[in-house]
Every structure is written in structure tokens, then in C-alpha cells.
Amino acid sequence: MSTIQIPGVKTEQAEIDNNNNNDSHTITVSSAAEGIHCCKSGRRIFIGTCGIRNPDQQIFEGDAGCFPFGGCGYPCHGGQPFPSVPMMLPNPADLLPTVSLNPFIHREKTSSQSPDAFFETLLNIPNIRTERTEIIEDGDVIITVRSTAEGTCCHRCGRKTYKSYGYGREILLRHLSVFGRKTYIRICPPRYQCTLCEGCPVTTQKSVWYEQRSPHTKAYEDHVLLQSVNSTVADVSIKEDIGYEAVMGIIDRRIAVRADWKEIRKLDILGLDEISLKKGHKDYVTIVTALAGGETVILAVLKDRCKKTVKKFLKTIPKRLKKTVRGVCSDMYDGFVNAAKEVFGKKVRIIIDRFHVARLYRKDLDGLRKKEMRRLKKELSEEEYGKLKGAMWALRKKEEELSREETQILECLFGHSPELELAYNLCRELTDIFEDDISKSEAKHRIRIWKTRVRLSGLNCFDIFLKTLEKRSEEIANYFVRRQTSGFVEGLNNKIKVIKRRCYGIINTDRLFQRIFLDLRGYPLFA
Hints:
Distance between the termini: 27 Å
Largest sheet: 6 strands, mixed
Shape: elongated
Number of strands: 22
């Protein structure tokens, strides 16, 4: 157990708590340092009097074990060997038998093991036996193990064979660090000969704890993947002291570039949205997600947002999962809406996100505000126009959220522009319709009345929105069935933007899928 990097201690024994589900381990050590300074005279003393261990077997966390005492025979203690001076402890009173040394650590039933057996338990690898543990010059730990599993399946016929044929080449695998030291496992996998196949082929035994051609154990790969969550490949490479390509190799081996349909039980609500990989270049990719059981699941990152591409992917969804889809949330982009309609038909509701609807009619209101503000700037004095400062933010707030100053700004603005006041009130009425808990049929009825009022008002700022409302009235009204939005998609878009900034841009859709999957599912899978 020389891997413990604590100066002046000697390992006595290693213990494993059999009653603890967290697999906690206790290593008992004793001090290897000689002598101590007297607590009164300050002189160095080397007369050992006893080794104290708490009688109720409670131990020190971090300083576990027996701590030697030095007895001072100088006149400061009248030539008596006491009081003793405890090493490494600030307060000798803590060692009184009536005082609990550490109330948080108490082992009632523990099992003591030899160092090799202790390492076998720490490794937590099935069907191996530790043969040797060594520390090489650079401080790394190498644990030599031997497989205790018998036989293997023939690589040709698949039948089990038990005829030994020696051992394969030596393999050195990076494993989880032990006591802060890089740790490697050395193994020569056994080989077996199949007597049932022609030519008696030889097969090397495969173990479940590492993959062939991988320089790491699966446990270590899980650790690297956990470190990669909300991080970058470069950072993980530096922290783990492994190559950049090694980290990428682990991600490629363990994280797929598309959804594994076998791992998904149901889809419930699908989400379709686009995101630009490069700002200002309009190189959009489609993010396909699902909201199942309250969790967001990434299904695909498609190379573009064309209807053909989206439709092709939606068709690949297995029939058993298509039956679980209850709705598809999207923005107003025709490619997404039409692709979903053609694949799912009338059995699945296509829902246009209400916040995309609100953004459209509020954009029309903002366009009218800009037009009116330009007119008022020419007509009003500088002092009067200054009173309208902050009108933009006041128009975007709900009435109950307005401050007194903002209310006065709107009153002043509407006094100069009745047309803007009318448009503002119409926007509030439409927002109230979406806020009210009403049925789909009632919502459609109230929206029709709202459209009539807009046309009779003589306002033309909502003309584009009215056309969209007429074209997608059914999809917009589907929101009122279960009041479902694509908020989970928009939330994921924010996470994707963080990933792009963290990784200094990602233009490969496969890599982007892997990073999204890791950030969404990394902790549940590898923590």
C-alpha cells in the first residue's frame, strides 16, 4: 500500500465496510516519524511510552490509526513520563477514552484484507485475480492481474470452448487513478482452441470490463465521459493527461451520432427547430427532440432544414414509437409543418408554438411604433419628444408590470398616436386569448372575432400576420388542446449556443449530436 502519498506514515491494514452500500474503505496507518517536541519545554524527545488507540474502535478521518506518544523526563514534568504529547493532533484531550474522536465515522463490522485482495476490491473488476502491484519510476501504479473466467466463445462457430491454448500478448490498460496516481492494469488474456471447428481455430478471451483495441478500461472511459459533461475535449485531455485524440476516441466508441431507438420507450411530444451553426451564414441545421416523461431527449441533428430532409428522418422512427407521438411542436416554418403532416397525417396534432405567434404580431406592433416615432420626432419639439424615451420597453411589458413612469410614457405616446394605442390594445386582447384557459373551439371563435376587429379598425400593420393566422389557424388553435409549447426545444437551443461558445464552434453535425447527448444524459449515465 505504498501508493498512499502521506509522509511519515506506515500502512497497517486495509478495511472495507461490509454494511455500507457506498463501498467505503478504511486504511489504518501508524506514524513512522520519530520523536516530538514537548508541549511545555519545547525540547525534542524520543522516549516512546505507548501507542494509543481508542477503545471503542472509533478512528480518525484522514489520520486513522495508532499515534505514538513521547514521554518527557525533563524537570518540566518532574522527571515523570507524563503528560504525553500526541503527534499530529492539536488537542491531547481529544484522545480521552470518554470522548468520541469522530462521531461521523464508526465501523461496527469490517473485513480486513491483504493489500492485493484490497486492490481487487478497489478495482471492482469481475473475474480477475491480482498477482502483483508495483510503482514505476514516474510514480504510476501498475497492477498485474490474471483472468479467473474459464473458457470463451469460438469466434467462428460461437460455441463455448474450454481447451486452453496459452495466453495472448500483454495488454496495458489505463484505469481509474488510485490515491492520486495514474493506474494501469496489465493482463495477458487467455486463449482457447475450438476442437469442433475445422482447423481448430484459436480465440482470445473477451472480458466485459474492457473493449478490444481500446487502451482504457470501461470504468476509466466512463470517468472520462463524465469529465466531458459541460466541458471540452481539450480541458479533459489536460486534466486526465491523455491525448486529445484519445478523448475523442472514447467519445466515438461510447456515444452514438444518432438516437438509439431501442433505448427509447415513448416519444410523446416531438419538437422541430432550426439553429445556425455559424452566425450570419444562415447554414441552418434542424434539431429534432422529444419530450418524454418530462425529460428532453435529443433525436437527431439534421444537416439542413429542408422539408425533404426532415420528412426522411421522421419516416425512420419505428412504428412502435410513432404510435406514442401525441403532438409535434414547431415554429411557423412551412418545411417543418408540412413534413410532419405528411408523415403523421391527421392522427397527430401539429402545434405551432404560441410564443412564435406572439413574436410575429408583436413584431408588427413594433414596426408601427418605429414608424410613429419617426413621425413624432419631426413634429414634436425636442423637449416633448424626450418625454417618450423608454416607450419601446414600456410597450413590451404587461400592463400590471408597468411602473408609474412607464404608464405616463405610454399615456403621452398614445396622446400623440391614437393609431398606436389601438394596435397596442389589439395585441393585448390577442395575448389574453392565449392566456385564458379555454377550449380549442372557443379559442377559434374568439380569434375570428379578433380578426374582424382588426380589419374594421383600418390598421394595416397586421396584414402579414393575418395571412399567417388564416393559413395556420388549425395548427395555432391546437395549442389550446393541451396548452403544449416548444419551450423545451427553445431551452435546448440555449444549451446548444453554450456548447458552441464553449467549443469555439462546431460545424460537424455528428459531433454536435454527441456533445448535446453528453450534456443532457451524461450525469445519469456515467455519474
